[in-house]
Amino acid sequence: MDGHTTCVVVGGGPAGMVLGLLLARAGVDVTVLEKHGDFLRDFRGDTVHPSTLQLLDELGLGERFAALPQSRLDEVAFPLAPGRQIVVADFRRLKTRYPYVAMVPQWDLLNLLAEAGAAEPSFTLRMRTEVTELIRSDGRVRGVRYRGPDGETGELRAELTVACDGRWSLARDQARLPVREFPVPIDAWWFRLPRDPHDDPAGLTPRVGPGRFAVVIPREGYLQIAYIARKGSDARLRARGIEQFRRDIAELAPGFADRVGAIASMDDVKHLDVRLNRLDRWHVPGLLCLGDAAHAMSPIGGVGINLAVQDAVAAATLLAEPLRRGTVTDAELAGVRARRLLPTILVQRLQRLMHRGLVAPILDRRRAGPPRPILALLRRFPFASLGPAYLIGIGVRPEHAPPFARRPPTPVVVDE
């Protein structure tokens, strides 16, 4: 089946869904293609930061988001000794309506955005539709070829194609946009443990041991654990087996020793190949890359979703009018990168500094926590925890909903 739309968005993640919703509210005919049949995938980025919470409010979705099952992180703290910790980032110090990070399963956020999009006449979401190839003619991308739910193939032609299909973006690869890779010393392994009533419900706290550490994220009804170790150690870790992995976790976090049996097998441990990269050029004629397709982020700081969403807001703000008139120039596409490049570079530089100054020394057994000068600063001036909180929660250049996308609050409908 062939068709035409003004803008086709490849990928229904946070960037793709936010972009689709905003453009539809501008009256642009937009189609989002998502290759999966639903949004239910474990261990995707589930942090919704204060700036994104503010955006949802501006879109009239704040009350509906607040009704979703969620937990809230007030701080990021680092343990110093049994019963002692130091707060590295205190979100409660932020002068914002939402001084916390909301932990919400990403599928709930995406379903909320899909429902909001469905209310817009010019929004189309097509699930189980996998993009297989870019359509090109006269030196320009003209849309995509795809495989549909029943294996049927088709073409969807568009004035603009936007790649929001992640760090392994097919659209980016086919456009032959070179990727600049930065060295990363870590990989992450994600798994769940049952939550105990005595667990801290509001803090994100690392557990540190010789050559490894884990980040414990309190979630609604369970704990989400990121086990961090040297890049390239996945085969060795899996070869040691589930019993040794459980012992490693119990040694790293003795308080979890009575729960590690909940990890039934190594199939319950999901490996993330951590990448840190970015494109020097985010577009070719007719195609724009956003989010992880333009810049893969380390999980350190949990800022990937936040940056992807802000990319989408900037793109919608700058491109809605050109798309309404039916022509998008190279200069207008380049304007999106120009607007979002500084925040991307600064966050990636901060992550690289954290890799070198915090993560690598722990993995090399040279240190068991943050550098002493940082600890001394935070002890003497607790207000300094505002700086990391702002960088993580708000960002360098927070984006706000353009006027055409703003709506009054939508009340939550309760079924009787």
UniProtKB/TrEMBL annotation:
This is Oxidoreductase. Residues 5-324 form the FAD-binding domain. Keywords: Oxidoreductase. The keyword Kinase does not apply. It comes from Plantactinospora mayteni. SUPFAM superfamilies: FAD/NAD(P)-binding domain (SSF51905). It holds the Pfam family FAD_binding_3. InterPro entries: FAD-bd (IPR002938), FAD/NAD-bd_sf (IPR036188), PheA/TfdB_FAD_monoxygenase (IPR050631).
